[in-house]
Design brief:
This protein is mainly α and 80 residues long. It contains three helices and no strands.
Length: 80
């Protein structure tokens, strides 16, 4: 199962500033998976570059309040 899921992903190297690496280390201590945090950050920043489908949701902004907008609206100005 692991190899099937992993075969669909690309591997790349990311060089981080010291402060970013330290922040990720603290996030890992709090139980967050570093690779998942990096993927979520990429989705937020690159949302306007996705083709053929709605930009993926990061799951960072979740609310039960139906009067709030979609999280995609938060980053709408990035596409301008």
């Amino acid at each position: 199962m692991y190899s099937i899921c992993m075969s669909k992903r690309y591997v790349t190297t990311v060089r981080l500033e010291k402060e970013d690496a330290e922040a990720l280390a603290r996030a890992r201590e709090d139980g967050h998976e570093v690779s998942e945090l990096i993927r979520k950050g990429l989705r937020v920043v690159a949302a306007r570059y996705y083709r053929g489908r709605r930009a993926p949701s990061t799951g960072l902004f979740v609310s039960a309040d139906t009067k709030l907008g979609d999280e995609a609206e938060l980053f709408a100005d990035l596409g301008e």
